[in-house]
Amino acid sequence: LEQEKHELVSASELAKTYNLSATTIRDKLVAINQGTGGKHMYNPELARQILTRNESNKRGRKRAN
Asked: Residue 54: exposed, middle, or buried by beta-carbon count in 10 A (0-12, 13-18, 19+)?
């Protein structure tokens, strides 16, 4: 069986793409880090799924128009 080799992207490249800071990218994607502690590399597809997830916590009742 052949394993596909994934292109990995750095935290700074993802920061430019998603308009977030590199430290925010590192904090959110700590589970899928494939690099070392100083070199943070991520699979772009998994990163897209995690970063585009809507994590807003809505509280209270809906607004009455």
From this structure: exposed
- 51 vs 6 pLDDT, higher one: 51
Question: For residues 14-45, b (16+ Cβ closer than 10 Å) or e, as one string?
Answer: bbeeeeeeeeebeebbeeebeeeeeebbbbee
Contact by Cβ (8 Å): 19, 13: no
Q: Which two tokens stand for residue 54?
A: 């809507």
Q: How many CB atoms lie within 10 A of CB 11?
A: 22
pTM of whole model > 0.85? Answer: no
